[in-house]
Every structure is written in structure tokens, then in C-alpha cells.
Give the backbone structure.
Amino acid sequence: MNMHSPLGASPPPAPAAVTFGQKLLAHMVHLYTASGVAFAFLAAAEICAPQPDPRWVFVWLAVAGLIDATDGPLARRWQVKSRTPQVAGRTIDDIVDYLTYTFLPLLLVWRLQWLPPPAGLWTVLAMVASLFGFANTGAKQEEDGFFLGFPSYWNIFAFYTGLWYTHYGPLFPAAVLVLLTVLTVLPVRFLYPNLAPWPWRWPLVVGAFVWLGLLLTLLPRFPALPPWLVWVSLVYPALYIGLSVYLDLMTRNRRHGA
């Protein structure tokens, strides 16, 4: 009789052995996540060019963002945590994300002088705030489907900064940068589209892909877009922010009422 189990209780079944094929698939998911650094390199090479073309930078960052949007479901599908426990997939993901969502987009903004002086100061402040956001172990609240703090979408900020600078000069994008930098370290919550509560998850994910497609169709004319089209293209981000605030309040009220 098992002295450590209740009388009559059978011991828990042994975990199934991980096959070679399952380990290989899990490693392939890690490799897929890590491939984002190749597109980070291409973006960095363009930024360092004598006459950088921001359109190509955004193309490479968009590819990296597509990888980031799809590697999480693959990792959960193939159970990479349990099948390759010696590889910290979250670390790979965070390093690539910091490069492609924060460092390179802000470097582009600085390189093209889209911010007022001291442009380097504003850029570094945003980078540091984002670094603390990535280091916050509670930043990804996956059970609730939220990010804590502004989730460092500086690639989107950089895209619109080029447009705002063209039409309004450097002060407006600088003000937005300061606001987002503060929101990065504040305990405000933004939806995590891949893990958003039902029934909002699929509308958010599908909407994000449609919106990304819209930005890519506008990219060949970047930054020479009419102002009205710039503001129309911000409908999805506005809906995302509004839904984030609404669902955050609903979640907090539900907990307080429980």
C-alpha cells in the first residue's frame, strides 16, 4: 500500500514520455520565435544606411510582429514549456520583442530627427521605461488577458510619428511619446489580443490583421498621406484602447463585487 496516498486511492499516473518528434516540434517553435532577430537585423541595417528608407524598416518590423503574433499559439499548441524545459522561450521572445517593438523603432525616430531636441533624451527615456516594463514579471497578466502598462508598441508609434511630423512638426509626437512613456510604468492595463476574454479575442485578433494590412497598403506613399486618412487609420487603435479601459473596469468591478 502507498503510505503517502489516502486509503484506497491509486497513485497518479506517470507523465507520458516526450517523444523525439514532440521535442523537435517544440525546438522548431523556439527557432521560429528566434527568427525575429533576423528581421531586426534587416531593420537595423536599413536604419544605419546613409539614406535610410523608413518604409523598409516598417516592412521588416511588420514581419517580426507577425512572427510574434503567431508564435504564442504555436508554443501553447506544442507545449514547449514541458517538452523543452531547458530552453526559456519567454526570454527569447522578450529579447526579440524589445529589439523590434522598442529599441529599433525608437532608434528610427531618433535617426530621422522626428522629435525636437534633445531627441536623444526623449528616446532614451522611452527605452528605459520600456526596459522596466519588459523586466516586470507581472506585466503579462495572461489569466485575465491584459498587459500591465503600455505594452511597448513603439513600432506603431514610430509609424505615426513619421506621419505626424510631416503634417504637424515634432512637438505633437514628442508629447505622445512622453504620455506613452509614463503609461509604460503606471498600473494601467491594456488588452493582450491573443489572450483577451471571450467573445472579444477573435474580433481583436482579426481586426489587428486587417488594420496591419491597411497600414501596409498605405506604406508605399509613406509619409505623404493626407491628414484625414492618417486619423481614419487610427480607428482600430482607438477601439483597442477604449475596449481595454472598459474590460479592465468590468474585471475590477467583478472582483470587488465577488
